[in-house]
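Person: I keep going back and forth on a fold encoding question. Show me how you would write down a chain together with its backbone fold. Please set it down just below, with no commentary around it:
Helper:
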Amino acid sequence: MPFRPVTPEKLSTAVTRQIEKLILRGILRPGERLPPERELAERLGVSRPSLRQAVADLSAKGLLTSRAGSGIFVADVLGNAFSDALIRLFAEHDEAVFDYIAFRRDLEGLAAERAAARASDTDLRVIQTLLDKMERAHLRPDADIEARLDAEFHLSIIEASHNVIMLHMMRSMFQLLREGVFYNRQIMFRQHSTRHMLLDQHRAINAALQARDPAAARAAVEAHLGFVEVALADHNKATANEAIAQQRFEHEKGR
C-alpha cells in the first residue's frame, strides 16, 4: 500500500520552508537583512531556538549568511550565474553588449506578455508606482536615479510574470548591468531628447500592462529595447569618431 504514517512537521522545518519560498519568489532579495531574532521569532510565531535551527539549516544551504555584529542576511546567490572569467570576457567585447540586449528583448518581451495575462492587481500597482517614480525623477534629472528606477521597472515586470527561474536569471543579468559589465546605463539618460523618448517608451509598456494586453505589452518592450540597441550603437560610433578626430587634432597641432 502507498500510505505512510503522517508525522507533524517540526517548527524549524516550517520556518525553513517559509524563508526558502520568500527567497525563491524574489520577495527576500540578496543582501537583504532579516529582522532581529526576537522580532522575527514573534512574527513567525515560533520560539527562538526553533528560529535558530531554521537559520542554521538555511545557512548550511548557502541561502543565509551571518555578519558579526550586523545580523543575518540573505546570501548573495546571484553572482553564481557566470564565472569570473566569462564576466571579464563579456566586459571586454562589444559583441556581448548587443547579444545581451537581444537576449533581454526576447526574455523581457515574453515576461511582459505573461505579466499582462497573469499579473495580480497588486503586481500592476507595483509597476505603476515605479513608473510614477520615474515620472518624478524625470523632472529632476539625475542619471544615477533614472538608471536605477529603469532597472527596477523592468524587474518588476519580470516579477509580475510569476516565473521564478526567469526572475532569478534576469536579476543576475541586471546585477551585471549595474556593475557596468555590459554598458554604462547612465549613458542612456544623459541626452535630453533620449530621456524623453525613454520615458514615453516606459509609459507605453505600462499602459499595455495596465490594459492587460499581452501582445501590446510584448511589442512595447521589444520596441523599447530596439531603441536602446540603436542608441548604444550610435553612441559607440560617435565615441569612435571622436577618438579619430582627437588624433587628427593632435596631429595638426604638432605640424
